[in-house]
Every structure is written in structure tokens, then in C-alpha cells.
Protein 1
Amino acid sequence: MTTDSAKLRKAITIYLIVMALVALANGLSNSVFSNYFKEVYKTTTFQRGAVELPRELPGMLCYLIISSLSFMGDIRISIISQFLCALGIIVLGLVTPVFGVMLIFLFINSLGMHLFMPLTDSIAMSLIGKSDAGRKMGRFKGVSTAFSMLASFLVFVGFRTGFFSFSARFKTFFIIAGACALGATAFLVALYKISGKDEPKTDRKVKFVLRREYKYYYIIAITWGVQKQIMAVFAPWVLIQLLFKGADTIAILGMAGAFAGIFFIPALGRWIDRFGLKKMLYADALSFIVIYAAYGVLSAGFHSGRFQAVGIPVALTFVLIIIDHMSMQMSIIRTLYLRAIAVSPSDITPTLSMGISMDHIVSISSAVLGGMVWEAWGPQWVFFLAASLSLANLAVAKLAVIPSCAEDAPLEEAITIEETLENEVHGG
């Protein structure tokens, strides 16, 4: 083995460890935040929605920040990002600050997470080279997925056994998450010493495209922003606020949804090939209408006392949570649709950037407005309004004109485009 190949193998091993530690850190914190807000700060539904402002604002800012810091290189920016993650979450683990101060450290943690998101694939691609790129990228993704599921399992066991507790002076789960982020920081420093000094500096420029031809894509990007925020904030809030479920229940349902997704993604690819994009746009729209209408009916029953917090209604709510996790994977359909209608291939990436920026703006506003609607008129109206908004997706499915040649687009390419751009502007 040559010196260069041994050095590369060591760098890849270090980065696999980084991905594992980051997945653990995020899994031990993100999955318990809703319960943390409720049990530690007794947040109202309106406050729960408003909390998404400091959590999602970094998603709108990170692309601009990374562009301005591009002279530093990906690895050094990643070192800063993981240190910010660790700082924000460790403080919340060691002390319980007043609500306003908590939001500051929540923002710091979220900023670190969002800064790292667009860099993960960039660093990985610089390490793997061109040979067997797909297999090697799959290895990185596989490690991240596996340790995310492990984090959910640890949350489930920790809260079920009492090892983790919101009432304890120290929030052990946050401290462990912070330790993992610090570990990732240390390994990134080691990675920089091996390969970062020779890392080419990138010139990232913020690019957006706004064309009349993409008006239907912009519509579904905006509705997607609302849909994903309802799923992330208010679907778990039904379990927490109305059914009084703890972090262990949220974690096990997340594991179930992730496990089901392993089988759902290949099936989705076969359905796209078999039925075509237009029919799958209908399926995408109808899935959200049905899911959120069902959420509305169930939450109305729990809120009024017509449904007891046991038995079949609760089981149906659990099933909806799992299906909801799976339905998030259908964003691939929207990516394929954009590529099918693109005036130029060079429009795809900046148009996705524009769409994701749009969905972040409406994500923040929908979380705040959703909290107001919940408290003013009842939880069911949050979901009924989301289902009504999904009628716009149905209209797009009817009006969209898709070139027949686009039906042969490979799913793997769409997944790569969609994941990369979601990371570049998001995260979350």
C-alpha cells in the first residue's frame, strides 16, 4: 500500500467516525426537543410554534454564511460548525436557563447543525475520488442512518428506564450529545491535519433562478414547506399535548418510520417507473390530504374527549406518524418533476435552491401561525388547513405537462440531486 493510499484510507475512516458521532449527537437532541420544551418550560402550543423561528432561521442564513466563509475550506468550517453544536447543547445539558436564554443556545446549536449539512457530501466527495463513488457514498449514508437509528434506540431505552430524565438537574442526553459533537470536532481537526491543508478552496456563490415556466414547481415547494413543518412540529405535539406521550414513544415511532423507509424508497422508485410522474404527483397530493384530514379527525376527538387516549384511536395516530415519516420521502417526485420541465439543465440546482429557500420562509411562518390556530380554534384546524392547502398540489398534478421523455429519468440521480440541494440550503 502506497503512502498516499494509506493516508486516504485513514482519512476516510476518520470521516466515517465523524459521521457516526454527528448522527448520534443530532439524534440524541433533535428527537427530544419537543418533549423538552413541554416538560421543562411548560410551553404553550403557540410558544412551540414560535420556537421554530430560532431553530429554522439558520437554515435560511447558512448558505450565505458558508459562501462568505468559503475561503476557509470545508473541513475548517465543519470544525467551527461542530463546536457550535457542542456549545449550544452542552449548555442546555448543564443548566436550565430562562426561556429566552435557552432560545439563544438553541439557535447556536441549530446554526452549527445547519452549517455542517451542506458540507457533509462535499467533504465525502473530496475523499472518495471517482472509483466506486456510488458504493462509497452509500457507505457514508449507511453509517449516518445506522447511528441515527441507534440514537433513537438510546433515547427510547434511556427514558423508559429512567436513566434520561427532564426533571434531573443535568440533562444527560444533551451532555452526551454535546460530547459526541466535541468528539466530531476533534476528529475533524485530525482530518484537517491529514488532508485539509491541501484542500482546494471553493468559491460558493448564491444562485437562484426565478422563471415563469417553473411556477407550478414553486407552488409545490411552498406547500411542501408547510407540510413538512406540520409534520415536524404539530404531529408530534398531538402525542405530547393531547396523548401525554413521552420522548420514548416519539423515539420508537421515529425508528419505525426510518425502518419502513428502507423498504419504501425502492418501492417508490418502482411506482414512478410503472405509473409515471403525473400519476405520482396525484399520489403525492392525495397522500397529504388523507394524512392530514385523518390527523384532524383524530386530534378533534382527543381534544373534545370523544376519543379516549387509549385503544384504536391512539394506534391509528401511531400509524399516521409512521406513514407521515415515509411520505416525506416522496419529495423525490417533486425533484424529478422539476428536472422534467427544466428549460436548461443548468437551471435545476439554482431552482431547487430557490424552492428550498421558499419552503424555509413558509416553514417558519406556518409554525407560528399553526400555534395560533391550535390555541384559538383547536388542533384539528391546523391539520384541516394543511389538508386544504394540499389541494394546490392536486391542482398542479392536473395542470402539469410532463414531457414523455422525462419518464425514463433514473431515480438514483434524482435522489442525489434532492439530497444535495436540501443539505445545501437546509436542513431541516
Protein 2
Amino acid sequence: MITYNQFLRQVAAVNDCSDLDSYIRAQSGSVRIGGEKETVKMLGAIWDMAHDGMTIKQIAAACGISVRQIGIRLGIPARTVEQWSAGVRNPPEWQMPLIAYAVIADMAGDMDG
């Protein structure tokens, strides 16, 4: 399992690395989810969502799930995630890291068990 503080440190570390490979090399010792393959997959998802911008679409794409699945997994109404995805509405800025963490933690839980 990854804690929220670990997740935030991983997100911040994206800015310190020029590419995904250097990021994974630098961060793989600081957090472990399952085996090496699972850890690399999770760090890749964190890199993608943090590097490309933390939008609902980026979070979904980075984790290999649909925007709709994020809503289902987190109990966010379908209309809300649809509007976020379409850019009709935006969630408060402070919510995106929490949503991203919840999806990553859920993903990590899937990998562990």
C-alpha cells in the first residue's frame, strides 16, 4: 500500500527527473507495491498523471481505466465525471490529487491481492 504522503512525494519527484526511466530508477527504492513489475507499473502511472497534468482524463489514461470506472470506483456520480471529462465543469483543484491517490491506491490494492 502507498500512503497519501508517499504519493505526494512521488508526484513532486516527477519534476526532478527528465524522463520516465530516470524517475523509476530514482523512486523505485522509496515505495514498493508487490514485486518489481507492480512497482514499475504504479510509478509509471504516477509519472504519466503528474507529468501530463492531473485531469480526470489523464488519471484514467495513466491507470488504464475509463473515466466512468473512476466514478464507479470512487462513488462519484456519472454525470459529474462526464462533465469533468468534457471540460464543462472542473472539480476543485485540491480534489485532483486526492482522486489520483484514491485511484493509485485502488490500483495498488488490486496488484497486492
Protein 3
Amino acid sequence: MFSFRSLLAPRHPLRRFALLDEAGRCRAFRQSAQAPLGAGWIEVNEQRLAWLHQPLPASAHIDQLGTPARLGKALAA
């Protein structure tokens, strides 16, 4: 019964995150439905192993439109 129920339940798509150190270099990747807890995790549009121990390109960052700080700026304008 559990397997049948899991077929009908909506699935959350996995999002991709990168862990950045203090210098802005990528230290790890993670895929999950929710953002990981802790500082340094940012959402990216893809994962490339070549990015490990390197600064992420600006094109890899996903613009966080739903963050409270950005919403506050939009409402103030």
C-alpha cells in the first residue's frame, strides 16, 4: 500500500545547493527538496565537479526572488 500511495503523492523536485567557504570557493554540493541548514549554502542551477575548490561562476547562482530582504526592497520602491 505504501508504494501505491507514493505513486500518487506529489513529489517535490530536488533543488541543487553549493556550500561556499569564506573565500567564496565551492566546498560541497547537495541535492534536496529544501535548503540545507547552516551558513554558506546557496542555490545553484547545476552541479559541476570542476567547480569544487574554485569560485563559482556568476551564472551558476540562482537569483533568490522570494527572500524577505528582496521583497522588502520591492515593496519600498
Protein 4
Amino acid sequence: MSKKNEEKKASAESPNPESRIAAVRDLIFGENIIQYNSEFAEVNAKIKESNEDNQRKLEEAVATLESNMADLERAMDQRIQDLSTELNKSIEELFDEKADRRKLGEALEQIALKLQA
């Protein structure tokens, strides 16, 4: 029983080695650790702020690109419509020119018939 009592006294007198190391570390590096923790917190805050800013800028860029694409699509649709209208007008003019040739041919035939008569 004396061994058990001695072990209990020894363990009661000397705390856990890890806690002793932590206590020595805090005594030696206490101020530095507080400073490092503060700096790490600042760096983490800046990283978080930067990520949020980048995310916001990315969303703005995507919105701008979508808007530009919609504008381009509208412009292309308008241009296609204009070209289609112009093509239809040109086709009608060609048909009119051909019709005028027919009328001219008919008129020449009538003149020829009158001259023969």
C-alpha cells in the first residue's frame, strides 16, 4: 500500500507533462502566440473579404456578359430581319423588271401587228 500512496502523492504533486509543457510554452511565448493568433485572424478576415469581393465581381461580370449577349442577340435578330426585308424587296424588284419586259414584249408585238395591218 505504501507504493500506491507514493504514486498518488507523486501524481498529485506533478501535474500532467503536457500541461506543464503548455504552461512553460505560455510563459515563454505567451505574447508572441497572442500576436500570431491576432495576425492569423486578420489574414483570415482579409482572405474572407477578398473571397467575397471576388465572388461579387464574378457575379457582376456574369451579369454583364449575359446582358451583352442578350444585346448582341437582339442586334443580330434585327440585322437578319433587315437583310430579309432587303432581300424580299430585291426579289420583288426583279419580278417587276421581268414583268416590265413582258409588257414591253407585248407592246412590241402589238406594234408589229399594227404595222403589218
